[in-house]
C-alpha cells in the first residue's frame, strides 16, 4: 500500500536533505554524516538529515548559555505566553504532524494525532503553571524573621527522547522547562529525526514573531556515536531528562551522576494488570488489548503481563485469543489498521529472539510471534502480536521486550497477585480491574503496587499529561509532565529575612563577640 505524504512534508518544511542543528529560529548547515529515514510501514525513504557534529554542539551550548541569561529574567507569565502561542501553532499542524509521526515511527494515525494532542495539552498546562511557580512560607523560630522558599530557573535542560514518542516527550519536558525559565537542548532518537525537525519548524515561527533569543529552544540531531557521552558529561547541563532503555539509562545516570548533575530518567517498564474475579471482563479485555498491542507494544507503559484469577483465567484467555486472531495489522496510515509495524527490522529480530526465549524457558505460545510477509508487508517490520502463558520468574518475563508480547500468569490468592505484580525489576505503570473496594484499595495502598503509576479499571498506558509521569526501581525514579513535576526543572532556594535590629542565632545558641 502506498500513501503519499509529500503534501504534509512540504507543510512541515521537510526537504529531501535537512540540517540537524537548530537554535530556535536559525538552522545551521551541518557537515555531520547523513542519516536516512525510512517508513517502517512501506519501507520508502522519507528524507535524510545531516547530523550535528561535536563542533555544532559546542556552538549550540554557547548560544543556549547566552540565551538563558536573558530568558530567566523574562517574567514567567510572559514565558507562558510564548508557550500558549506554541500550543496554538501546534493545533494548526496537528494533522500533518500526526501523519509524519505515524509514517516515520509506525504508530497508527489515531495514536499519531493523540501524541500531538499531548503536546497541545502540556502547552495549556504549562501556561497555567507559569503563574503558579510558588513555594511555601514558614514561620521562623526567631522574632521578626521571615522564611520562605522560592524557585529559580535552573539553566540548560538536555532532553533525550526515544523513538516511540517522537514529539510528545520533548513537549512534556520543554514546555515545563520554558515556563520555569530554562532553555532546552533536544537530542531526539535517530530513528525519528524528521519529526523533531518538523517540530522545530513549527516553533520557530512563534519564537521569531516574539523575538525570543536564539538558543532558548535548540535541536541537535545526532546519534550516540556522534554525540553521546560528551552531552551527558557536560557540566553546562544541570538537568538531563532521558527517556529510553534501562541499559542506556544506567549509563546516562552514571555519567550525569559523576558530575552531580540532576536527572529525570524514564526507563523501562514491565507493566501488569491484575484481573480479579470481581472485574468487569469486557472492560478488562479492551484495556488489555489496547495496552498490549497499541503502538505495536512499543510504549514504556505497554501492558506486558496480565495476572488473572483462576476462576476467570480460561475464559479471559480464550476471548483474548479470539480478539488477537482478528486484529487488523497493516500500514500505520491505513484507517482500518489497529496494529502498525514495529519501528525497524532490528526491533523485529529482538521480538523473534524474545519469542524463542519464552519457549526455551518453558512458556507456551498461545498465538502470534510471526513476521508477516506478502503484499503490504514488504518492509519486513510487521509481526503478529503474541500471547504466551508463562511463570513470572522466567528471565525473559523479568525483562522488558519492546514489542507486542503479552504474558499471562495465573493466581489464586489476591496477596499472591500483588506479590507477582511487584516481583520484577521495573516499576513504571500498573493496573487492577476489579469492582471490589477491598481489592482496589489494597492495590493502591502501601502494600500494593510499587509503581509510579497505579490505575483502577483503566489500563497501564495512555496516561494524561496532568499527572506526574515516571516510575520507581529500574524505571529510573524521576517525574516529568504534570502535577508538581515542574519543581525538578527549577533550583530551590530557602530564604530567611531578618527585619529586626538584633542578630539572634537559631537553636538559641549564644555567641557574643
Ligand atoms: C512512553 O512510552 O515513553 O502513558 C511514554 C502513555 C503515554 C506516554 C508513554 N502518555 O502511554
UniProtKB/TrEMBL annotation:
Q: Which keywords are on file for this protein?
A: Membrane, NAD, Oxidoreductase, Transmembrane, Transmembrane helix
Is NAD among the key words of this record? yes
InterPro entries (UniProt xref): Ald_DH/histidinol_DH, Ald_DH_C, Ald_DH_CS_GLU, Ald_DH_N, Aldehyde_DH_dom, ALDH7A1-like
The UniProt record lists the EC number as: 1.2.1.3
Task: Give the residues annotated as active site.
Answer: 266
Give the matching Gene3D superfamilies. Aldehyde Dehydrogenase, Chain A, domain 1, Aldehyde Dehydrogenase, Chain A, domain 2
Tell me the enzyme class. Answer: oxidoreductase
Oligomeric form and interacting partners? Homotetramer.
Q: What is this protein called?
A: aldehyde dehydrogenase (NAD(+))
Amino acid at each position: 500500500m502506498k500513501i503519499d505524504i509529500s503534501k504534509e512534508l512540504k507543510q512541515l518544511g521537510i526537504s529531501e536533505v535537512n540540517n540537524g542543528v537548530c537554535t530556535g529560529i536559525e538552522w545551521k548547515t551541518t557537515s555531520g554524516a547523513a542519516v536516512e529515514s525510512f517508513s517502517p510501514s512501506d519501507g520508502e525513504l522519507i528524507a535524510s538529515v545531516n547530523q550535528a557534529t561535536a563542533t555544532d554542539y559546542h556552538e549550540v551550548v554557547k548560544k543556549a548559555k547566552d540565551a538563558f541569561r536573558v530568558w530567566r529574567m523574562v517574567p514567567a507569565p510572559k514565558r507562558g505566553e510564548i508557550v500558549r502561542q506554541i500550543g496554538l501553532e501546534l493545533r494548526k499542524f496537528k494533522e500533518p504532524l500526526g501523519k509524519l509521526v505515524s509514517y516515520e515511527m509506525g504508530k497508527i494515525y489515531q495514536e499519531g494525532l493523540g501524541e500531538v494532542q499531548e503536546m497541545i495539552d502540556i502547552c495549556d498546562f504549562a501556561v497555567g503553571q507559569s503563574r503558579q511557580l510558588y513555594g511555601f512560607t514558614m514561620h521562623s523560630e526567631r522574632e521578626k524573621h521571615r522564611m520562605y522558599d522560592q524557585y529559580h530557573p535552573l539553566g540548560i535542560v538536555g532532553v533525550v527522547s526515544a523513538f516511540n514518542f517522537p514529539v510528545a516527550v520533548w513537549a512534556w519536558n520543554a514546555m515545563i522547562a520554558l515556563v520555569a525559565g530554562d532553555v532546552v537542548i533536544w537530542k531526539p532518537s535517530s530513528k525519528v529525526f524528521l519529526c523533531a525537525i518538523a517540530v522545530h519548524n513549527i516553533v520557530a515561527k512563534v519564537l521569531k514573531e516574539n523575538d525570543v533569543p536564539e538558543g532558548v529552544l535548540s535541536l541537535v540531531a545526532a546519534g550516540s556515536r556522534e554525540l553521546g557521552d560528551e552531552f551527558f558529561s557536560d557540566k553546562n547541563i544541570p538537568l538531563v531528562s532521558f527517556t529510553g532503555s534501562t541499559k542506556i539509562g544506567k549509563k546516562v545516570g552514571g555519567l550525569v551522576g559523576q558530575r552531580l548533575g540532576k536527572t529525570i530518567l524514564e526507563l523501562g517498564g514491565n507493566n501488569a494488570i491484575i484481573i480479579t474475579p470481581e472485574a468487569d471482563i469486557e472492560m478488562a479485555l479492551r484495556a488489555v488489548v489496547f495496552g498490549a498491542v497499541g503502538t505495536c507494544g512499543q510504549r514504556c507503559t505497554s501492558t506486558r503481563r496480565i495476572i488473572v484469577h483462576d476462576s476467570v483465567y480460561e475464559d479471559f484467555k480464550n476471548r483474548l485469543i479470539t480478539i488477537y486472531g482478528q486484529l487488523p495489522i497493516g500500514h500505520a496510515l491505513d484507517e482500518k489498521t489497529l496494529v502498525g509495524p514495529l519501528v525497524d527490522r532490528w526491533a523485529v529480530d529482538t521480538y523473534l529472539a524474545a519469542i524463542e526465549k519464552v519457549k526455551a524457558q518453558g512458556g507456551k505460545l498461545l498465538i502470534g510471534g510471526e513476521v508477516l510477509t506478502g503484499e503490504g508487508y514488504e518492509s519486513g517490520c510487521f509481526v503478529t502480536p503474541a500471547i504466551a502463558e508463562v511463570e513470572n520468574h522466567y528471565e525473559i518475563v523479568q525483562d522488558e521486550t519492546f514489542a507486542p508480547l503479552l504474558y499471562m500468569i495465573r493466581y489464586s490468592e489476591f496477596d499472591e497477585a500483588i506479590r507477582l505484580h511487584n516481583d520484577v525489576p521495573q516499576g513504571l505503570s500498573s493496573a487492577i480491574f476489579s469492582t471490589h473496594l477491598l481489592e482496589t484499595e489494597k492495590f493502591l495502598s502501601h502494600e500494593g503496587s510499587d509503581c509510579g503509576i497505579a490505575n483502577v479499571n483503566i489500563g497501564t498506558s495512555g496516561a494524561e499529561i496532568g499527572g506526574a509521569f515516571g516510575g520507581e526501581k529500574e524505571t529510573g525514579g524521576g517525574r516529568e509532565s504534570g502535577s508538581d513535576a515542574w519543581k525538578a526543572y527549577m533550583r530551590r532556594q530557602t530564604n530567611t529575612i531578618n527585619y529586626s535590629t538584633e542578630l539572634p542565632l537559631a537553636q538559641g545558641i549564644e555567641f557574643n563577640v
